[in-house]
Amino acid sequence: MFKSGQFVADHLGELRETQVQPNGVDLTVDAVFEQTEPGRIGRDGKTVGERRELAPEDGYYSLPSGGYIVRYGEQITIPADHIGFLYPRSSLLRNSCMLDTAVWDAGYEGRGEGLLEVFHEIDIERGARIAQLVFADAAHVDSYDGSYQGENL
Ligand SMILES: O=c1ccn([C@H]2C[C@H](O)[C@@H](COP(=O)(O)OP(=O)(O)OP(=O)(O)O)O2)c(=O)[nH]1
Question: What ipTM was assigned to the predicted interfaces of this complex?
Fold first, then answer.
């Protein structure tokens, strides 16, 4: 079963009232990066490629078509017995953009990241809402203890 937006809000850091939605919590964009060097994914390990942080102009990121890594502004905790899913705000889709996300594991804590795909140039204000995080009940073996634990805190 999916949880209410208020339940999700109770597991996040400081939020604006407008971020709490009926079924989840809207996440904001805190930083945008462009990858500059290749990463590497092997059978036993991985590295994340170098990236450079973009500077907003007058508070806005003007993004030409391409792929960007975004860091969310909220401090996230995925509680035990739950799993998190993140969806793009539909206004992104309606503007020819997409946010790609992975599984948010029980026990994860941090300020996570996602891949913003821009198919048509868009202006996004730093701090604007771009995604919605929802929680569902989930059975799990152990809790998240990977290399991204505690990231960006
Ligand atoms: O879109 C997403 C999805 C998840 N996460 C966070 C929460 C998740 O629990 C953690 C690790 O994700 P995953 O398990 O997919 O990472 P991995 O590539 O398997 O690395 P590791 O084995 O170090 O965890 O990253 C994000 O920041 N963005």
Answer: 0.97
